[in-house]
Amino acid sequence: MCDADAHRALRAGIPGQHLGRPWAAVAAEEYSCQYGSPKYLLLCGLGGMLSCGLTHTAIVPLDLVKCRMQVDPGKYKGIVSGFGVTVRDGGLRGLARGWAPTFFGYSMQGLFKFGLYEVFKIRYSQVLGEEKAYLWRTGLYLAASASAEFFADIALAPMEAIKVRVQTQPGYASTLREAAPRMYGEEGLWAFYKGVWPLWMRQIPYTMMKFACFERTVEALYKYAIPKPQSQCTKAEQLGVTFVAGYIAGVFCAIVSHPADSVVSVLNKEKGSTAFGVLKTLGFGGVWKGLFARIIMIGTLTALQWFIYDLVKVYFKLPRPPVAQMPESLKKKSRR
């Protein structure tokens, strides 16, 4: 990206729009790199790695109970009772079961999800041009996030398969080191990727909602709820907006992606099963088991992910464009 392109890319929430300052207290010359540069994109990937890896690992106990409610609703009837049964069977250590594949799998997913989202958002906006990128910005967010998640799920699939097997199949294996070689020996490489289609079904709609809803919610908060322009807000205030918008986006994400999440949990537990077979067995009611737990988990998770991601941008002094605003060319047209 040349200097002129980088200058235009800093002008708003969608690359190629009017000039603005990402953080009120940070001058442009204090940025550590140019918007859209390789260094910028790599550090965004690092932010995604930290945000997804740390948050998913932190909520392993809740994720464990949620998965067991999906695959064995007779034994794990609810969140509270599910925690009780889990502790009774495996002690407090049992609540951390599956933490290693969770950490490594979701760290890799976050690297591709956030890093490639920035790449695709920049590239797609360049293809559309300044005016269309603004007018069609919701579609741009949806397309960029879906493209990024396609690759992120390929990176996640092996560890997700191991995590579910460890968490939901008693006696199979208790650690990543035990489960991975056994799965490969019994089922071959396919064992790690048979869940990629359900992952796409679950994660692509989830991520499209996560990014598009977040971007538009941030825009709405600054327009209707915050009493001063974004450029006049402190770093702490902007991070607060990020957290609130992330939580709102997370609630919608949980609802959209929950049926496919139920299918993934059962599919990776049962050897030889298929996505359509699991869906038929679960039925309409079965795919919604554990929804409340997932809303709590994903709402908190998404809010923390966006918060950590923005915090990484602040720490490394990355240029963070302000929310999208109408370009001057469209304003002139609207006044005619």
Question: Could you please describe the fold and organization of this structure?
Answer:
With about 325 residues, the protein is mainly alpha-helical. The chain contains 14 helices and no strands. Helix 7 packs across helix 8 and helix 11 (about 235-270) crosses helix 12. The longest helix is centred in the last third of the chain and has 35 residues, at about 235-270. The radius of gyration is 21 Å and the shape is elongated. Mean pLDDT is about 85; it is low at about 1-15 and about 15-30.
Outline of the structure:
The protein is mostly helical.
Topology, element by element:
Layout: H1 3-9, H2 38-58, H3 60-71, H4 79-90, H5 99-128, H6 130-135, H7 137-168, H8 176-187, H9 190-193, H10 196-225, H11 235-269, H12 275-286, H13 291-315, H14 328-335
Helix pairs in contact: 2-5, 2-13, 3-4, 3-11, 5-7, 7-8, 7-10, 7-11, 10-11, 11-12, 11-13
